[in-house]
Amino acid sequence: MSKDFPGWHGTTIIGVKKDGEVVIAGDGQVSLGQTVIKGSARKVRRLSPGGFDVVAGFAGSTADAFTLLERLETKLEATPGQLARASVELAKDWRTDKYLQKLEAMLIVSDGRDMFVITGAGDVLEPEHDVAAIGSGGNFALAAARGMMDSERSAEQVARDAMAIAADICVYTNGNLTVEHIAG
User: What is the pTM of this model?
Assistant: First the structure.
């Protein structure tokens, strides 16, 4: 990538676990420098390897994220119903494989019971306070959601409201949401 390339920015993904339900929501914005290239990208997906549902949201390069989602699906097919094990195996591959090391993305994944953030540094993190957020506006969405967790709001409403706050603050986040639910 040229040093003059303005860089891709975009996306905020949030995962909220509350009252036996997990919601992962993501905005649809992809920006190149100061220009919005697309406002309706779909960065939250449902996977069903081996008949076990998993919801995944990604931030970063779309092609890189799809590569990681395919690898995760393969790991889940090899270890059906074991999201933690599949996530650790993906993180190990991502950290040690020379091709995968170049991938620039992060994932939030959940099977309804567990929720993890997976990074290229080999991390598989279970979030504190049942909220995880990644991407350009991730810190804004995380702070907003944490502030709402003790309210009467549902997991979906916490996610939607936190994303609305992030979209108001972060220029790389919009309000065009994809929301997926998964029960524990």
Answer: 0.91
